[in-house]
Amino acid sequence: xSDNKQPEQNQDLSGAPSPEELEAAQAxxxxxxxxxxxxxxxxxQAKNTELADNFLRAKAEAENARRRADDEIAKxxxxxxxxxxxxxxxxxxxxxxxxxxxxxxxxQIREGTEATLKQLKSxxxxxxxxxxxxxxxxxxxxxxxxxxxxxxxxxxxNTVVSVLQKGYLIADRVMRPAxxxxxxxx
Length: 186
What we know:
Elements: H1 19-79, H2 82-99, H3 106-126, E1 129-132, E2 145-151, E3 160-165, E4 167-170, E5 173-176, E6 178-183
Parallel strand pairs: 2-6
Antiparallel strand pairs: 1-4, 3-6, 4-5
Helix pairs in contact: 2-3
């Protein structure tokens, strides 16, 4: 037997891979890349599903909060007057009690009226309705006073001479300005 072997036809003597080996290696790389892409796709799909679920939950919670706020606003509007009306009930009771006294003297009627007026003012103050009753000589404030006339007076110009009708504020907002006469410039 001889030691002479013939080289195989598919083997390149230079040691470089054959085209078939390159093709097989490329197919293996593509398969690995495909598997990696499919794994990444599955992770992204799971994340997408989770985010969509979180979005729907957040949207539902926001809608519920809006609905609760709308209900609270509707209740507040519906019952806003309740506290004010509750404050006025004693005033009504006092007026009705006064009318049930057929033989009351003028002094008793006056005393009852003053007590009822005090109750009414107290009820208004509890509900943040305050009088605008400027003192004589105080500076005219067009935001709280309405000048009915200007009269000659010994005091400084543009100051209140007299109050014809008290004004009222509710929570720092003018409901009705005080009607006043104002000192004219000399």
